[in-house]
């Protein structure tokens, strides 16, 4: 059922707009510092990889994600109660980022963002978010998140899907 | 002084050859597991981001590194006594990885590797390694390493440089 009240239009991703949900990972976030005798510039400490619980540690992985059709029919969001989760794309293609504020343990109305080339995101611990949603083509990511014992996934199925559009025209 | 005894030829990077120094980060290291209802494949836990010391945490950054001329004149290696350091390139270009075994607190003879497209590396804590050495063109990396108080850098200047060649022919 295409209820217009369920339509969301994605906005350009910005650190300010995304602040309630985590961090934007890009070179615009901090001033660079020189390293390697000035032959490299480091943009330091762009994501807060909080992990909690006994035996928790930060793990690094790679993810190959298939593209989704847009407008995106958003049926499900998830969150990770024991750790943050960061994704950095390995190419310059934009991808869709959908997050929800928490409302008494359930996701509120989604907010959608389109990344600029080379932007990544870090979802703060316990932040409702959609699955990885490239569009147009498959996309690979570095993922930095939590490893260790414990149940670190909570999913929420919406009664009705939200429809996420890339622009007001479609 | 070009002493032939100081000449090193880089080898293709492989997990087995690199094992004494850390981990190779690529999709060949582990079987993938499905995520996002089968719409993505995750290659999990590819790097051991060990961090130690009071207030230590894992940080994520981005690095823009300038290219080096090859053959590489290697004057200096460094190591990080308080944490591992992982680099994942944001494009498919190979880069040069130079590491040294430790010999009583000093670096032994270097070993050099050329990455395959999309391979990254994680230097284990306290492993002697060269600075980031793209060649041919500048290259950007995701870096995952340690933040926190303490002195986490030790450098070693070689009395004579080592010359790292990309192949036996030059």
UniProtKB/TrEMBL annotation, chains A, B:
Its cofactor is Ni(2+). Pfam families: Ureidogly_lyase. One of its GO terms (biological process) is purine nucleobase catabolic process. It catalyses: (S)-ureidoglycolate = urea + glyoxylate. The gene is allA. Its EC number is 4.3.2.3. Homodimer. Gene3D superfamilies: Ureidoglycolate hydrolase. This is Ureidoglycolate lyase. It comes from the Bacteria. Belongs to the ureidoglycolate lyase family.
């Amino acid at each position: 059922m295409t209820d217009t009240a369920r339509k969301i239009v994605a906005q350009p991703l910005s650190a300010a707009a995304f602040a309630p949900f985590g961090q934007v990972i890009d070179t615009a976030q901090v001033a660079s510092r020189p390293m390697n005798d000035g032959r490299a510039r480091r943009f330091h400490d762009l994501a807060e990889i909080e992990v909690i619980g006994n035996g928790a540690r930060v793990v690094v992985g790679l993810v190959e994600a298939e593209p989704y059709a847009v407008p995106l029919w958003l049926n499900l969001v998830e969150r990770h109660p024991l750790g943050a989760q960061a994704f950095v794309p390995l190419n310059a293609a934009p991808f869709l980022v959908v997050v929800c504020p928490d409302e008494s343990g359930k996701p509120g109305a989604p907010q959608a963002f389109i990344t600029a080339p080379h932007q990544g995101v870090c979802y703060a611990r316990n932040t409702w978010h959609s699955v990885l949603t490239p569009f147009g083509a498959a996309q690979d990511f570095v993922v930095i998140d939590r490893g260790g014992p414990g149940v670190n996934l909570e999913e929420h199925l919406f009664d009705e899907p939200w429809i996420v559009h890339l622009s007001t025209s479609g």
